[in-house]
């Protein structure tokens, strides 16, 4: 034990001498750990140590200084590692925060895009629904107008049936024979009807010439002239001879006098004027 203790001290004294001569640094690593274990276990005294190498206090001071430098280096390294670890943790946290921000921005962007798309789809749906409703309303109005026109034209096809009502057969034959030979101008009789439009002060008017059906093929063309302003809206003309060459118009009142020009196929013209109020059927004058 004496020999081992003396060997450690002699090595420690030699290291101190080299350090003093600037030929080495402080103790470190295993060498420092062996010296410290020896000092803390043996607790050497100066009288014992000086018998081997003088200067025990300086040698032990070198040992303690080596321990201090070692501890400072270890502490600095630990501090560096802690700082590096903290920096890495901070960078990792910043990466996580940035990742969450990117994800949040992506979600917000996706939500905005989805919202815009949804609003666009809703707008398109509303637009198409409105267009469909408008089309249906327009179609319904067109059907109503067409139905009204057809109802008015039905009165035209009655022709002159009333001329033969309640007459005997022989009288009807005589009447027809006369009408086959009469000048057509004597058989043409203007007609007019008026139908009020619900919720409006306007009226639908229909005028036509009442001619025996078996003489209508003699007519080439019929032209009606409504000389009053504010009329002739929504005009409907039935050019078919079977419908009495009907002419319809809409207005807020009847035009007192309407001119009719009838062109026969033989080139003969027939012109006449008639007062609407005298030929209105079914309704009083507006």
Protein topology:
Blueprint: H1 2-20, H2 29-42, H3 46-50, H4 56-156, H5 169-181, H6 184-187, E1 189-196, E2 203-210, E3 219-225, E4 233-238, E5 246-251, E6 257-264, E7 269-275, E8 280-281
Parallel strand pairs: 1-8
Antiparallel strand pairs: 1-2, 2-5, 3-6, 4-5, 6-7
Helix pairs in contact: 1-2, 1-4, 2-4
How does this structure look, described?
With about 290 residues, the protein is of the alpha+beta class. Helices cover about 55% and strands about 20% of the residues. The chain has helices at about 1-20, 30-40, 45-50, 55-155, 170-180, 185; strands at about 190-195, 205-210, 220-225, 235-240, 245-250, 255-265, 270-275, 280. The strands form two sheets. A five-stranded mixed β-sheet has the order 4-5-2-1-8, with helices on one face. Helix 1 packs across helix 2 (about 30-40).
In short:
The protein is an alpha+beta fold. Helix content is 55%, strand content 18%. The protein is rod-shaped, with a radius of gyration of 62 Å.
Low-confidence spans: pLDDT under 50, at least 5 residues? 155-159
Structural class: alpha+beta
The strand order across the widest sheet is 4-5-2-1-8
From the alpha carbons, calculate the radius of gyration and give it in angstroms. 62 Å
- Helix fraction, binned, reads 40-55%
Strand content: 15-25%
User: How would you spell out the order of helices and strands?
Assistant: HHHHHHEEEEEEEE
- Overall mean confidence score, pLDDT: 81
Termini, distance in Å? 146 Å
How many beta-strand segments? Answer: 8
Q: Outline, from the CA principal axes?
A: rod-shaped
Number of helices: 6
Largest beta-sheet characterization: 5 strands, mixed
């Amino acid at each position: 034990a004496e020999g081992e203790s003396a060997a450690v001290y002699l090595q420690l004294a030699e290291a101190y001498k080299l350090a003093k001569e600037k030929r080495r640094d402080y103790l470190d690593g295993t060498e420092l750990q062996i010296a410290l274990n020896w000092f803390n276990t043996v607790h050497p005294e100066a009288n014992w140590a000086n018998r081997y190498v003088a200067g025990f206090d300086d040698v032990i001071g070198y040992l303690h200084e080596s321990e201090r430098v070692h501890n400072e280096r270890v502490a600095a390294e630990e501090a560096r590692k802690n700082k590096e670890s903290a920096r890495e943790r901070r960078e990792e946290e910043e990466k996580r925060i940035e990742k969450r921000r990117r994800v949040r921005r992506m979600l917000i962007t996706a939500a905005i895009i989805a919202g815009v798309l949804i609003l666009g789809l809703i707008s398109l749906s509303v637009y198409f629904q409105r267009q469909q409703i408008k089309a249906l309303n327009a179609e319904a109005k067109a059907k109503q107008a067409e139905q009204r026109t057809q109802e008015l034209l039905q009165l035209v096809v009655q022709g002159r049936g009333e001329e033969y009502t309640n007459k005997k057969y022989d009288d009807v034959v005589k009447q027809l024979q006369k009408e086959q030979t009469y000048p057509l101008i004597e058989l043409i009789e203007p007609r007019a009807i008026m139908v009020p439009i619900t919720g409006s002060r306007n009226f639908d008017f229909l005028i036509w010439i009442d001619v025996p059906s078996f003489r209508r093929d003699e007519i080439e063309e019929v032209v009606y002239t409504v000389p009053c302003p504010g009329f002739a809206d929504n005009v409907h003309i039935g050019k078919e001879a079977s419908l009495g060459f009907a002419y319809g118009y809409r207005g807020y009142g009847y035009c007192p006098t309407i001119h009719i020009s009838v062109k026969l196929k033989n080139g003969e013209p027939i012109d006449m004027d008639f007062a609407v109020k005298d030929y209105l059927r079914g309704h009083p004058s507006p």
